[in-house]
Amino acid sequence: MGVENGNFSVNVTNEEVVAAVVPMQEYWLPLSNLDLLLPPLDVGVFFCYKNPMLKSTTLGNSGTNKMTFGSMVRSLKNALAQTLVSYYVFAGEVVPNNMGEPEVLCNNRGVDFVEAEADVELKCLNFYNPDDTIEGKFVTKKKNGVLAVQATSLKCGGIIVACTFDHRVADAYSTNMFLVSWADMAQPTKPNNTLVVTVAPTASRHPCFRRSLLSPRRPGSIHPSLHHMYTPISELPPPPSTASAALLSRIYYVTAEQLHLMQVFAATRTKLECFSAFLWKMVARAASKEKNGKRVVAKMGIVVDGRKRLGNGDKESEAMMESYFGNVLSIPFGGKPVEELVEEPLGFLAEAVHEFLAAATTEEHFLGLIDWVEAHRPVPGITKIYCNNADDGPAFVVSSGQRFPEDKVDFGWGKVVFASYHFPWGGETGYVMPMPSPLRNEKRGGNSLNLKRRNHFKPLSLSFL
């Protein structure tokens, strides 16, 4: 019981810095206008693997050999050093320029790499409450640079590989590209135990750092809706004098049957739109019980990736945007009184979600957002939903992780049994990321590590009445 509540120890056994395997000329890489919309925020992601068993290749020996933690760590470091040749931004550091804006100094300072051991088995970890079992234990806090890595051995022989990265430099899409390339480089068939620099494998995507793809227009054109969605931080009200209660982090699972049932109520809308509408209703229902006669508005935003919107039908531009490394995000949002959200059917709310999403799914929206940032520089901007005042009502953001490539992050010792992004969120706006099951089992859906032990993943109780 103590282990499941996070009462176990994780001891650091080694710390070092892993840099790219070849010397690199130092230079500055500016952040794009869309990068500048992100506040200083570090985001974590972790991958859990069972005790790896590899078939012996020794002639006449049909047994199995366990990989040691030491051999796995060496493979991770060697592959990381090679992958950083292409993803050199992750080996740099963020520093202010002469305007006070953040830029990436690509100096190959390297990635802080932590090795640790935990006196707990994988099956005993309570992922339902990552605040206790993940935060500060398996996902290291980044102290320097852009990226930090921790590899932790478990009592059962399993391993957890975790990364923490600066969100101002990369969004989840960019980080996913890096993770797939890193894992592909670590495969036993790759020359990852030598200092030979290899070409990025075809299964991976070579990153594109062309900031000119997100250049502002001259003259700019800004739609009035952007002033509703974003604000310069200079116009924010002063923070409240009393600190609000910290948000809790929890992991639930939702079955495919439940997702299909949601779409019954809004058959013309996507699963994400329907699921977001359901969460909106559920949050409003909870807020309605505590409003004490006040008018309370519940706000919800959804993260939109602009890469496909900015291709403009040109194949070369589309290919570059598909591999673009950086932030290409916008967060449209809507707000409604909690009474309306509680009373209206799910299909009506799904239409409302689709309506505010539609305004941000065009090329013109993202071009206008780039122009909006340019018009306010060097004063940073931020999406208004991140500046929510809890006294006015609840607010949260949904970011789809359905394209999370956990099945491709195989470092050579087997598939992921569970993986998740981890946000040590410090504001008053909630954050929700629906992610696929590593089992890819449509009937079971959701987070699926050790589903029989339901105290490890709490089912999300759904009611559509």
UniProtKB/TrEMBL annotation:
GO terms for molecular function: acyltransferase activity, transferring groups other than amino-acyl groups. Gene3D superfamilies: Chloramphenicol acetyltransferase-like domain. Belongs to the plant acyltransferase family. This is Shikimate O-hydroxycinnamoyltransferase. Coiled coil: none annotated. The keyword Transferase applies. Keywords: Transferase. InterPro entries: CAT-like_dom_sf (IPR023213), Plant_Fungal_Acyltransferase (IPR050317).
